[in-house]
Amino acid sequence: MASVDIAGVIKRFGVHEVLHGIDIGIGDGEFVVLVGPSGCGKSTLLRMVAGLEEITSGDISIGGRIVNRVPPKQRDIAMVFQNYALYPHMTVYDNMSFSLKLAGVDKAKIDERVNGAADILGLQDYLARYPRQLSGGQRQRVAMGRAIVRDPQVFLFDEPLSNLDAKLRVQMRTEIKALHQRLKTTSVYVTHDQVEAMTMADRIVVMQDGYVEQIGAPLELYDRPANMFVAGFIGSPA
Ligand code: ADP
Ligand code: MG
């Protein structure tokens, strides 16, 4: 079980409240996209699910267990960021195996996991290369490989494609969806791009100014937007 439950979550930075009571239930194996304009609180919410940001009040559960005080490393999650955060002085293999090494996984198992992920991502021929010797798309795959090798219960993506050019962005979103169809890992994917949300999501969460405006399947939001904001946001071109 790896549902993610966000219940009554409020976040304040000092006196500034940026999330005003968020309720989102994400089913086991679901691909949910959080979408909304820059500054609406998407990253903050995702970082709270990851344990990188404290919750002011409310609860977040993963797989039915409240994780409010559980440190990131003890939550069964892996996060993929927009800036890849690859180690420049390490090969692709070492980038992908690093967290497993830290966790004390034995060498044979690491080899199996890294090769498995490289297979899935088409990185078999690049394992000995360094990040600077890779294209943007390949770097993005390595960043995903680092998440996959850990075989987490939940993937968290924060605008993973926003540094890529338009053509590659379209290709990578197809790849990420195919990956999800194969692994069925519960995924929470943040973007400000409504086209990305519409094409990738099982369900979309539309956010504005620290509130959830609507949650629903892409077509549902398109056909029956809850308000003018959702209609305008979903309906307008990227
Ligand atoms: P998004 O990811 O949707 O663009 P963020 O979650 O990054 O939005 O930010 C939501 C709001 O919280 C913004 O007003 C931002 O300025 C504020 N914020 C984010 N992180 C911090 C922080 N560490 N300290 C103070 N304010 C922050
Ligand atoms: Mg953000």
TrEMBL record:
Gene Ontology biological process terms in this record: carbohydrate transport
Topological category with respect to the lipid bilayer: Peripheral membrane protein
Domain ABC transporter, first and last residues per copy: 4-234
Domain of life: Bacteria
Subcellular location: Cell inner membrane
GO cellular component, one term: ATP-binding cassette (ABC) transporter complex, substrate-binding subunit-containing
Key word Transport present: yes
Assigned keywords, A-Z: ATP-binding, Nucleotide-binding, Transport
Any one GO MF annotation of this record: ATP hydrolysis activity
Major location (coarse): membrane
Family classification: Belongs to the ABC transporter superfamily.
UniProt-recorded name of the protein: sn-glycerol-3-phosphate ABC transporter ATP-binding protein UgpC
Species in which this protein is naturally found: Kaustia mangrovi
Lineage of the organism: Bacteria, Pseudomonadati, Pseudomonadota, Alphaproteobacteria, Hyphomicrobiales
Gene name for this UniProt entry: ugpC
